[in-house]
Amino acid sequence: MSTAAVDPHGGYCAATRTYHSLRAPIPLPPPSQPLSLPSYAFSFLPSPLPSHPALLDAATGEAVPFAAFLAQVRALAAALRADLRVSRGNVAFVLAPPGLHVPVLYYALMAVGAVVSPANPALTAPEIARLAALSKPSVAFAVSDTAAKLPPGLSLNAVLLDSPRFRSFLQGPGDASVADADVICQTDPAAILYSSGTTGRAKAVVLTHRNLMTSLVAPAAAATADVLMLTVPIFHVYGFVFCLRPVMAAHTLVLHTARRFDARVVLGAVGKFGVTRLAVAPPALLAIVRAAEKDESVVAGAATLQAVLCGGASLSTELLRRFSQKFPHTCVSQGYGLTETTAGFCRAIGVEESRRIGSVGRLSWGAEAKIVDPGTGVALSPGVPGELWVRGPFVMKGYLGDKESTSAILDSEGWLRTGDICSIDKEGVLFMVDRLKELIKCNGYQVAPAELEDLLQTHSGIDEAAVVGYPDDQAGELPLAFVVGRSGSNLHEAQIKDFVAKQVVHYKRIHRVFLVDSIPKNAAGKILRKDLARLALHQISSKL
Predict the structure, then answer these.
(1) Which CATH entry fits the domain spanning 33-45+62-217: 3.40.109.10, 3.30.420.40, 3.40.50.980, 2.40.128.50?
(2) Shortest CA distance to 18 belongs to which of 370, 515, 465, 543?
(3) Strand segments (E) across 58-201
(4) CB of 154 within 8 A of CB of 140?
(5) pTM here?
(6) What is the pLDDT of residues 391-417, one digit of tens each?
(7) In terms of CATH, what superfamily is 440-543?
(8) What span, in angstroms and rounded, lies between the C-alpha atoms of 239 and 219?
(9) What is residue 5's DSSP assignment?
(10) Residue ranges of the domains in the chain?
(11) How far is CA 224 from CA 65, 141, 200, 214, in A?
């Protein structure tokens, strides 16, 4: 296609009704060149290595210099190969909280061609077993507190990151050429992350080395911001990518390792370590605003903060306004992406783009997008809302072992259906409108109604169940259940909530239960969730 057909101001091509990124190209190697993500990332590091730390623990202040980081990665890679017999294509399940050893582990595994598969350490044992059944790992890494949750076959031989054995792996003789023992292709799987896709239960998203290469090159406008504090989970694609990116950019990564998010503590760490960029989820941004409104001193202590990076869910205009009042010299940069797109493929870069309230920025380099009518698949004109489809080198390889789900979201031409309703204006700026997905976004996490409905229906007193989200100022949305009891059952709300809470991670817990005679469905038997959502709002409002 001729570049003359692409509008230089917004990237729109009227002939194809497709948007193209206008960002500067990134230095990706030829796709056919054998290369792993670690080798690619480390090729960007300057010589001599930077004097500032590569990693910092916000809770303890412990620092890992760049030289030590590289030495640990090489030593661990050698140990993985020699002691644990980990090799190209092996899946490594990781069940651990944030810590300085985790980025080292991620890089070392990928350096030997293994596939990193991190999961939420707060999940229950049955939930973890279901994820492991999807990815079929041959080795597991955990900590003392999480190892017991692993399936029996994995827990017996799990390597504990807080054990003397693992520490000895980091101190062993490193070999800079260990990653060259196997030829690693850019199309090889590098990570398996877990997502609910557009609907339904968890799926294993396969991301390649090239997917990660595309997503890890930091935007040029962020090059001067050299201290990133990460407060989001590093098993989630948002945190996973940001866990890897700072090292590649020769920046310092400050890891928030505390079990709970405390806005005052985080802002204190910003001042203590000179943090310039802070990566958070929307509930954390709200907590920061509330802390600042209660105590002006926390704002003064965070004077180095230039930008807050926020993803996982939309931010309200009111929250952005309140933040700007307290932090007038800090911009909030929103982005948009999915696990299936290796995190964000659209982001606001710089102060000017971040001022576009309600937008999530412009397409990243290599991205193509179109807005289509969800019913017909016909591409729409600029400014008209429809379902966002995207294509680019960051799009996943597919769902592991699930061709049907892969083909439902990814077509033969490489277009990924996001399931989100968006619009793109004439300047190429993307705005979120609504979503087709039935997923509930609770504290930045995805909660699949189908999973909770299946669980509820295992209760001996429940015939049918439907789960929807209802708005909450702090969490974004909270799961709510409509339940049809079986004849003769003696159900009550507390009992049902407790039944679910014992079997799921905290953000999947049911917060309200309505006992009903029937659940509205269409002619095909599909639950009418919008009707239920409206009913929920009415019921809750009437009780206030």
Answers:
(1) 3.40.50.980
(2) 370
(3) 63-65, 91-95, 115-118, 139-142, 159-160, 189-195
(4) yes
(5) 0.84
(6) 999 999 999 999 999 999 999 999 999
(7) ANL, C-terminal domain (3.30.300.30)
(8) 17
(9) G
(10) 33-45+62-217, 440-543
(11) 19, 35, 41, 20
